[in-house]
């Protein structure tokens, strides 16, 4: 099999990470996860408490790609038509015109996705999976690079609506955005002191064109993964369906997501092949939102992360 040429990719990836670090302090692994998801042509769910730069990271990455950016602030009174768009009667032509909603962009930031009711959340089902919107029996396709980056706060429960499992499964990753380290937080204060040290979003320039991103996705699909590693992925996902602590295991979509994001992470780390470490690292963000604990796990105080870690430890790593 011919090995892909990743020389140009490495330079672009380095430039993107360098630009992001000028705006966002730390969160290097989180940035790698987001970029891996975008390379895998998947949607991303960022979860973290307020103030840890979830929205800033999404806006920064969208600024570095020469695409149309859209933002939707989900609220309890938001209607599906506020997201997708609506048909309006045109007095001059005597016909109905479709007015596109904010979801018609290349990269869409859905802020606080769990604040909208189920009806509005469901409006994203078709556009996330099939990358198209159907309104009044007319289908409108999205652009090839269409990606949703959604955020949610795991702590606040008042006025929120839990995302259904079918929608969670459409996110390639659920990334937990944590607090910065003491050194990183000190760097934030240092940059804010005197209102200097940070690069403003308006000062950033696009590093990638749409064509560059599509080419990178094509390159990602060509990354080499040994059949033994594909079998390793299958074993991990299959084990979630038989684990005694899980009420719901991962779907085949999870297997595909794990393989594709592992390819993306390999490229970001300068390799044209996937390793077992890639799969083990990504098993947590790819699987955590697809699994449901049963009562036995609750009684023993287990978390989804602990169950995933146990599953990985019980499966022999390919050599």
Provide structural commentary.
- The chain is of the alpha/beta class.
- The chain contains 14 helices and 11 strands.
- The protein has helices spanning 7-23, 28-39, 54-63, 80-84, 118-122, 124-129, 165-168, 182-192, 210-221, 227-242, 252-268, 276-287, 295-299, 304-314; strands at 43-47, 69-73, 85-89, 96-100, 107-111, 132-135, 138-141, 147-152, 171-176, 246-248, 292-293.
- It has a 5-stranded parallel sheet with strand order 2-5-8-1-9. The chain has a two-stranded antiparallel ribbon with strand order 3-4.
- The radius of gyration is 21 Å and the shape is globular.
- The model has no long low-confidence stretch (mean pLDDT 87).
